[in-house]
Batch of 2 targets.
Target 1
Amino acid sequence: MSIAPDTSINPALRVAVVGAGYWGPNLARNFAMSSEWELVAICDMDLERARALARKTGEPAVAGSLDELLANHDIDAIAIATPARTHYAIAMQAIAAGKHVVVEKPLADNSVHGREMVQAAAGAGTILMADHTYCYTPAALKIRDLLADGELGEILYIDSTRINLGLVQPDVDVFWDLAPHDLSILDFVLPGGLRPLSVTAQGADPLQAGKSCIGYLSMPLDNGALAHVNVNWLSPTKIRQMVIGGSKKTLIWDDLNPQQRLSIFDRGVDLDRQEMIRTDTEDRKGATISYRLGDTWSPALSEFEPLGLMVSQFAASIRGNKPAPTDGASALRVLRVLEDASASLANGSAPQFNTETSAMENAS
Amino acid sequence: MSIAPDTSINPALRVAVVGAGYWGPNLARNFAMSSEWELVAICDMDLERARALARKTGEPAVAGSLDELLANHDIDAIAIATPARTHYAIAMQAIAAGKHVVVEKPLADNSVHGREMVQAAAGAGTILMADHTYCYTPAALKIRDLLADGELGEILYIDSTRINLGLVQPDVDVFWDLAPHDLSILDFVLPGGLRPLSVTAQGADPLQAGKSCIGYLSMPLDNGALAHVNVNWLSPTKIRQMVIGGSKKTLIWDDLNPQQRLSIFDRGVDLDRQEMIRTDTEDRKGATISYRLGDTWSPALSEFEPLGLMVSQFAASIRGNKPAPTDGASALRVLRVLEDASASLANGSAPQFNTETSAMENAS
Amino acid sequence: MSIAPDTSINPALRVAVVGAGYWGPNLARNFAMSSEWELVAICDMDLERARALARKTGEPAVAGSLDELLANHDIDAIAIATPARTHYAIAMQAIAAGKHVVVEKPLADNSVHGREMVQAAAGAGTILMADHTYCYTPAALKIRDLLADGELGEILYIDSTRINLGLVQPDVDVFWDLAPHDLSILDFVLPGGLRPLSVTAQGADPLQAGKSCIGYLSMPLDNGALAHVNVNWLSPTKIRQMVIGGSKKTLIWDDLNPQQRLSIFDRGVDLDRQEMIRTDTEDRKGATISYRLGDTWSPALSEFEPLGLMVSQFAASIRGNKPAPTDGASALRVLRVLEDASASLANGSAPQFNTETSAMENAS
Amino acid sequence: MSIAPDTSINPALRVAVVGAGYWGPNLARNFAMSSEWELVAICDMDLERARALARKTGEPAVAGSLDELLANHDIDAIAIATPARTHYAIAMQAIAAGKHVVVEKPLADNSVHGREMVQAAAGAGTILMADHTYCYTPAALKIRDLLADGELGEILYIDSTRINLGLVQPDVDVFWDLAPHDLSILDFVLPGGLRPLSVTAQGADPLQAGKSCIGYLSMPLDNGALAHVNVNWLSPTKIRQMVIGGSKKTLIWDDLNPQQRLSIFDRGVDLDRQEMIRTDTEDRKGATISYRLGDTWSPALSEFEPLGLMVSQFAASIRGNKPAPTDGASALRVLRVLEDASASLANGSAPQFNTETSAMENAS
């Protein structure tokens, strides 16, 4: 799938941003800067906050409620940047009004709501997209291309670490706060999306904050591969790193090393599996295992603002009537892993086997 | 407990090294260099290998069997560096002959054997010690002191990573190959030893090598703390890092950074728990959580060969008739966690609750 | 000298920013945000550019010339962010009108002009200050305090590296582009300011760009110490590092490592100089030289915008009628080292001995 | 030139090591391990030290003097690992006796001696080689190949840093102690050897140790390129890094990063020089300068002991009667730069123009 901006000479699409709090200003700024969009309105119950944002983004109109927005303004799409628990109601009303919708992560506060949103958009023929911003970084796009081209071979393991001395959130645990980033990236870069065989979560709340502040997710994938995610609010050092080990090459994305974000190592272990069946002596080891210690390659990455590409992609999806890479179905897969993680935590870290995944996908 | 060399003027203790393969030469060399020890003999079924090692270590005698060794040589102690499956038989025979014993890790091939070894040594009044070499590094010793002094406060979490493009072993999986290092260090530095409430293992064998090549261990500790270990034979980069997060400070041991192996961060999250009970609004967050962003300190570490300190410690334990920090009971705790990990793997990553730990400890 | 913001309840000082190009917007934004300042006007020959900047900074007035600005607006001070060759004329006119002046680096295009500016301000009783922004970073402030307190002991050497794949400038060489940062920091942190005994420059123009793209500055200081600066536009990697070696401790400022910008090493070489006079044998070495290998310490640094502190400092200097740490005299010392570097380059890298420094200082 | 070991079935060459102090044991061990050499004798005035070394290297004979060695033992070559001031006398006597000679760095204590040694060996038809060990590292060999193949384009600059908290030497300054490594590497990797247009040294002795403890060497090369070397005994951190900037690519050798010792950056600045002649306006910049920000590549390096390759190369040179890459002429170039550095230091850091280089080369 191409992720290039649409450069056609169509008139700009008309959008409103709903929610002028933490993330809304970033969305508004990028819509305002885009030649493909016209930012028509800012909507927030706090009208003063809406007006302050409007002043910085070219003076679009302001609206104090979704009803008012939909009644008074001719828009093609809305971008939702309100608290997660409100996503469902806002999106459903907008979809019912025939609007395209992009939603800040997570898609919704639970997968039942998320599934309804996906189904409603499918029924209405509108685009439903998640603002999984990290997926539109140069690094994630490059990884997606490398995996699509089979550059790493078969995936053997994935290990993602996102730790920091972070803000302990009042309403969600560390899984729901940080892991959506890792999970949405995995869904984006893996050729078939993120479809784990099971989900197991280990959490710890050593501060007795009433929720996990440290978390580990284990997700077996097909063919014996294993994806693992580590999130932590209590780490004194900041790490944002993803390792994707393949049968041919292994990739490391170190997001905090701007001089070498991506490294692709031509190193690995090769097993001659035929041999392994026939021999069972200590000599076997020498005979059937070999190690590659080849070159390392760090591709140059272009520099651009991921959110700028995200809003372009939203426009392209609408114009082409085709799902974005981070469409509602993708966001729903992420949501379901998060729910499974919570279920695993509630069940003494027992693995959760998500039996509905394939059925669900038909709906989307 | 002091871990200083014994500097008394006692005559040197007499030791034989059993096994002249991979690790035996390191033991023999350190015993030969020590003023507290006289290396009396090298014992190996392969007499040529024994003779070659003897030539490099001051020409001790050679013996082709344990019977021959015990019959012909006046020794106080033996050091066992043979394959793990032979540790039990050799140690039991030596203990029965009244010899002190130091054993290369792991203590034995299973905990039933290990427990018998501990009990036999206790009955015979001889010292049984494990050569957990990493525990005698300057970094581990410093960490042990810091934790004993309460410098980090209450332990909140531990995260240990030991990954590398390592040799896929013919006889053991990655847990039994690499995790003994992490586990023995944890047992050494934690004031009460390593006593997890449960053990859960996630493994992956994406090369279909017939054993886990990638592994994760989760071990809840008292008070909501969580210890986690990641071992991996397939990583293109080498990491040996342990993070110990405490309520007061957090420590990072980066063993591959010789210029700053230990860093102690005065950073963390503080919760006012009283407050938390009374309030339940979003304001709570600001009111009850605070962040420390203090200085980082990297203590100077002296430089010495860990194995040299280990053989000194063995001598000191014998002379003082007191257990070493890495005594049989410690090695048995490590062994039991490894067994629990294997049991968890065999049971779909179900947590294993080791109910015998406390009973066991009485025996040692 | 204290560098704290003035928190008095005086009415805000009135300032105009002259120059709305590259750096002017940063100055205007910080003056606009400061409670100590009122941003009265933006002045630029390009009125459209002035208006665009005014729209983003609270709609101050705009003026198309300095004459217009001074004639029509009641201001206390101006901030000059125009090309270096125009600094002199603008500053002299403003000083003559009794205005306080802060100038973007470098102070002027040559030291004759710079000296006149310093003398004019002294004569008029107005504040003349240079916007040496790096001096107002948390790291530079901490270093200044550490050196003022003698924490490093006697300064032995300074080594500063500022290299990058940078923009080859059309009008200045790499010394005049990058070294002002290093030199102004040195002048700021060294207790007596930057007063080298001589200045030697090595330059290279391997691209035949008509100017040095790579440069090295050597500046012997008192007591055998040596300061060295390396600037480079052609480096594929970016380094911004300053090492300050002292007789007691050594400090490293790694500006691109946000997790540990400052490290203070209690490591060094100690010579017993008395001994050295009496002995002259090879034994001398062991007897008189000793090495310290102590702890490393990384102080926590607060986070703030350096330019915000700079504008506060400008206000405090005006209100207290006292020179800022980066006053005209300081900026003149930096300018003279740059001129000496150019002279050294023009004379086959011969050392330049700046005989006027002490005389000059009297004037300021 | 190929640097592969000679694999012919010739009988082993016979060698004696002269000097059993610091470096001699490394040479003796590598000669003893080599199938191309037979270690015949160890020669040291301190016979006990010679015997101790002989015991560890297969029991060659021992000799207490060079006369005794040459009189009593049938040898093809000697390896000199004695203090630098004795190299000349020992080498000249050995060459006069028709022996091939390899000398520990530096070749001699001054270039007059060094030149005589080169001429004597040329006259006698024997091989004279310097043990510039770093040149036989996998990284240096790779760099030599890359430069020979023109992979970096034209050399623009070289910047080498070798700093550490090192032993302050009793008899030499930091230039003579550390810079031979950098200079010999440069002579080895640069296609035409190290032939600077001039040599300028800046030194500092802030501890008043009576010699430079910190040093900078600047060496303009052909075509506007500049080589620079920084050596320092007082640095709290250890750096061994060489940057070689080329018109096509730039290489960084970070010898303390075993996971990525060599990085080759396809980054740089391109000037269109034609354009530059015709235009002289500010627009020129945009028109004629462009930046490449391409991939980074880190080649895999094999692992071997450099000294093992050095002794192989010595054998190959003798058997093929061809100079080694680190032959006497190369070592003499290094020696002359060191002498020029000393002369520059003694002359207030004035550049030294070595007018004899080309004449000298004819002799070798």
Note: The CA atoms of residues 271 and 289 of chain A lie 5 Å apart.
Target 2
Amino acid sequence: MPIPAPNLYPPFNTIRLSHVCLNVSDLAASTKFYSDILGLQVTDANDTHVYLRAMEERGHHCVILQRSAQPGTVEVMGFKTFDEEDLDRAEAFFQSQNRPTQWVERPYQGRTLLTSDNFGIPLEFYHKMDRLEPIHQKYALYRGVKPLRIDHFNVFSPNVDESVAFYSQFGFRVTEYTEDEESKRLWAAWMHRKGGVHDMAFTNGTGPRMHHLAFWVPTPLNIIDLLDLMSTTGYVGNIERGPGRHGISNAFFLYILDPDGHRTEIYCSDYQTVDPDLEPIKWDLQDPQRQTLWGAPAPESWFQHGTRFVGVDTQDSTIAASPIIAP
Amino acid sequence: MPIPAPNLYPPFNTIRLSHVCLNVSDLAASTKFYSDILGLQVTDANDTHVYLRAMEERGHHCVILQRSAQPGTVEVMGFKTFDEEDLDRAEAFFQSQNRPTQWVERPYQGRTLLTSDNFGIPLEFYHKMDRLEPIHQKYALYRGVKPLRIDHFNVFSPNVDESVAFYSQFGFRVTEYTEDEESKRLWAAWMHRKGGVHDMAFTNGTGPRMHHLAFWVPTPLNIIDLLDLMSTTGYVGNIERGPGRHGISNAFFLYILDPDGHRTEIYCSDYQTVDPDLEPIKWDLQDPQRQTLWGAPAPESWFQHGTRFVGVDTQDSTIAASPIIAP
Amino acid sequence: MPIPAPNLYPPFNTIRLSHVCLNVSDLAASTKFYSDILGLQVTDANDTHVYLRAMEERGHHCVILQRSAQPGTVEVMGFKTFDEEDLDRAEAFFQSQNRPTQWVERPYQGRTLLTSDNFGIPLEFYHKMDRLEPIHQKYALYRGVKPLRIDHFNVFSPNVDESVAFYSQFGFRVTEYTEDEESKRLWAAWMHRKGGVHDMAFTNGTGPRMHHLAFWVPTPLNIIDLLDLMSTTGYVGNIERGPGRHGISNAFFLYILDPDGHRTEIYCSDYQTVDPDLEPIKWDLQDPQRQTLWGAPAPESWFQHGTRFVGVDTQDSTIAASPIIAP
Amino acid sequence: MPIPAPNLYPPFNTIRLSHVCLNVSDLAASTKFYSDILGLQVTDANDTHVYLRAMEERGHHCVILQRSAQPGTVEVMGFKTFDEEDLDRAEAFFQSQNRPTQWVERPYQGRTLLTSDNFGIPLEFYHKMDRLEPIHQKYALYRGVKPLRIDHFNVFSPNVDESVAFYSQFGFRVTEYTEDEESKRLWAAWMHRKGGVHDMAFTNGTGPRMHHLAFWVPTPLNIIDLLDLMSTTGYVGNIERGPGRHGISNAFFLYILDPDGHRTEIYCSDYQTVDPDLEPIKWDLQDPQRQTLWGAPAPESWFQHGTRFVGVDTQDSTIAASPIIAP
């Protein structure tokens, strides 16, 4: 199945990914991980929720830690729309796709539409979020990996072709993709709204499950600093893969796991994709450099482990794993 | 005069700045500067023109060097529109502003509209440009400062309030600005389309003149490499200011001059500005850290020198220079 | 006067510079500067003294802050000898030079010889200092500029030829030097014991006064981090010069002033000088790139300001300042 | 067996490791690897030998490529002595150890003593080598990983205790070591002369064989640049391990293989070890972080593969491999 043409005039305008709500078992342990180690700033905290933002963000939160009886699951992925009316247009779109929709109350957010994608991933859309003072020049606050902003989500999909087709309808555009040369099926795809390589990526596997969320950092040296810090403060076991450079996206990367197993990518070296006529880059599933340009294989866990969306059943992938299994 | 509200639904959709055509005296000397020293890639060259692109760009050119009897002037600044129809909408808009418009032939570009802004800066808009193969992972080609993409233009304006008002009409949004607290006049403003701090910036002074064009590079270490290279290959006199960090934009910067005096900024550490409700950051003209966060003053030349647009008369600024004159 | 040949078999064996004792007015303010901002670790503190070490050092202290009625003066510069007997040999040497010598008690140090050089700079030599646990892999402790070790001293000398001759006698070797082509007098010289560019440097001017002490850091990015931190925590006025690269020594540098005016250099990119037949590199006083490879001039204060050694009279330089005065 | 006390007054004074001669099958292919990819500078070349130096070195060569019928073997490892007389003292020492000695002619070197260590590793000592002009500030010459200097050798030894005892006699000092807690045998040891972590390291295994030679580079970003270059110019298969940080030595590292299988480490983040009373750091063989601070295991080849010294028989290690085999 070929890559669908981008829909340049989508039914509603999504600006970018915005935030994720993660279900965790121990709020203090998770806060320590995301705040002290990773370096996000706490913007609010109570007995059940901790809100955090990255250093250049002015919206109230990009990560919400939620104390839960189902830790290690993802509650919802959030996106920001261009204007208020886009929320109503989004409601109409998801209803037309026979997806459930409802308006929900979210602290620090304006009107928020809760819905889900074709495989049931809970998505919420909002336009207004409380805006905070800039802190990107308060250098005394920087710590950990010095995360600048949330960059993207990556999810396991049991059918990447269908996921790409679904998100293409509302304007997500493919920047790079991996195709199985034999079946001509998509193995993985990277789709964006905000002008970088991706806001949302899909990779073949039992799903839907979150593969990872990602933060953008200034330079590879910040990632090296994080590795040094984690490996000498009791978190060496939370380092899963990297550092390395992906062939796909050309990103310098590191993958780490939080105390409940949610995976985070630390990421730099993205490129700009605002041109509407940007040609997607195609990778062959047989090319091992698409995963790691430098050749080092990813660990098995990286292909198998993900965190489920709370209450959402998963399906096995519809593509049999090829001998060199890889997202 | 307050900052105008951004026009979120502009009459035509400009995606980003795209390229500049610089008039030069010695094509070989300028090519050496932009290609061997700076690190741009030559995509075509003939007796009168040399075309170059940066490492992650797939459009044919971001800089055109044009052999000219009026070296040290700028021929035109180019912008890319979202679609083909935006060109016609742009024509209608500029005509409504009593600006001259004409359709011109440009090698490697599709239909191209030549017009000018309220102070006469020659602008051209196109939608299609020849697309080239990706080279961002051909690491053997990287050299010089490893420029990834053209980032922005900065021009002297005799009336920044009027420049900002003009560009605001077609959707440029202010991200940061400097205000003279006494007169409440704008001293400088940074405006974007593509989701970074700026595509176009205006600074008070005799104008219109180009202050600089800018390239985005991966890390400050690339800028240090360029300084080492220039200072040991006969170009130490072409280093004008930096390295340093601007308060405004938070950019790590270096300013250099080409053989004809055109100024280029090398730039990293931008931030993302896609939110339509992004609040512009205001700086006080009396705050010296807005220019250099670290305190070092800019040299006099940086405030005085610019390169004229060919055939365009300049006007003195309408704001008397304050004691601490500074863009 | 030519550079003296190195004395490869000196009367006693000095391993390296070791520490400095700085007289300060406000122990809390100075501790904040050296510990919180610069990133040294406090190893002991009482009402009158604070001891600090850098991250890879295992000796007890490299900086001693001493509360004093004569703040802004330097108490003494310390050096470590190869063995215990070298102390007695040093005593004999300095006595042979008609320099005063005495054995003094210093906390955390073994037997310590206090003496002074030919212009009266107070020097102390010891062999044993309390050794502390390694902390260079305790990455949670790193902050500020991440200083790894004290690197060198630099002093104003009223007669650099004589200073170089004096230190050459006990084995300091010249790595680079600046000569006034007309008078054939030394303008400045860099001398080492430990195998880097310098342990001690001399520069022409009213002296003896300390020009600066220096710390070695891993990469230029650490220096950029320090600049960002200082300029947003109330220390922008303490930034004096840089960042830049010296022609001499090839060091990437930054100069900052502590609350009492003591100057510190942050330094990286040294080279190895252990070869006994290493040829000193000669620079011409007329070459501005010897100071800053990239061409930017140093501020006037950098040539004029230094901190005196407590109780030591200074003399004017015996070389008339050339038009382009510069150390 | 405990670590022997350092011999601070050795029978002869070795300054540092100096160079290695590698036997290769295809002089052009090896030259391309070491010069174009790695970035060493060719200082002389003929039909049978190519000489190279690193960027801050002023000695004529640090690597000699020798066309050979026994490619993939090492001809000799070279060391520089403090003075000419040290060569005669070295001859006496090695004769006293019943090691063969002879004076050999080496191009560009003065009087050269060829001998071998207790396991037969061919060693040569010289004092004088042709000195070349400094090129460390000729930044246009820098390429590849920007190697600054040869840093150390690492060899497989069938009995590390005996190797350490042998080198200790002539003044090599242990900086870090790994001990098998059960047998109290040394598993690996790092020994230096020049004031860094090592000039020579020993690791348990079939030996003697060269494990690797190493080059010092300025920052981790240079290593990332090399990875990007190698992986896109046909050398992805030559990348063996890394990037990562060793627990031991705290070095940021990368291991690559040349066309004949000789292993090179690219290395930065060393620390200074000139103190004669520096305490060696002990690591437990059971601690996986001693190898990779960040936890990633080394590939099997890294424990097994080495290159033999030409004409020298190897012996199996006298320590049975523990379950977690590792040098």
Note: The radius of gyration of chain A is 19 Å.
